[in-house]
Amino acid sequence: MSLLWINGTLTDKTEARISPFDHGFLYGDGVWEPLRIFESKPFRPLDHLNHLFLAAESLGIDIPLSREELVAAIEATAKANNRTEGYVRVIVSRGPGTIGPDPRKVVPQIIIIAEEYRPFPDELYGHGLHAVVFPVPLDTEHPANRVRTLGQPHVVLAKQHALRNGCLEAIFTDRSGNLVGTTEGFFFLVKDGAVVVAGHQPQDVTGFAVAALAGQTGLIVVEYGVKLPDLLAAEEAFIAGTACGVIGIVRVDGTDIGTGTEGPITRGIRERYHAITHGQG
pTM higher than 0.85 for the full model? Predict the structure, then answer.
């Protein structure tokens, strides 16, 4: 049994219903934010919810609960599902209205899901991912691509492209050729022993947390626009995301990154991230 929190009521997912006139369904008119539960507590919940509120504001959606009320709802949903560790997604849709896009007199709906999601097999941690570059540039100026909206066909198409090419992850570029993230995480590389945060990426709580963590461990952290030649010449590459944690990327478009195995800096950051999220740091 999996229980969903829907507008204040816990409902079994097999019995959950939304209106076919919900604008989240009709138009992808809504936003979402992922969180992780570690040792029964959400990791940096207010940082995540600040992103959610900013995303909703960008679409003109007024979230009908406060941040504190949402944290309480997240914790209640995780507890109801016996989740002491796991993935949570908070969804805010515009709500049910007419079949047209007019958003007036539409009441936003909130759904909270606490159900495990791990995008990559556990055995790949410590070994690393093979990835491909998605060939369609992302329009990073479009508001729908700057925040997590309910309509994300580019993510679905990129994941399909990766799978067709025998990989589990795809890397996005913008129209200038900058690498701007992946389907699952915030993108980093290691160059001359320094951790490079790829610029031009949408904001991400876990990505920022990992960048700060790298700096706290004494590594030099810099940010600049990263293009494919920079990646292919890097010593290491990795991604950090709420669902996937920290995992290395060891081959891109058939070319090994560095030695083609998880590097020591990636491993150290991955182990440190696990430590701080489990009360060991």
Answer: yes
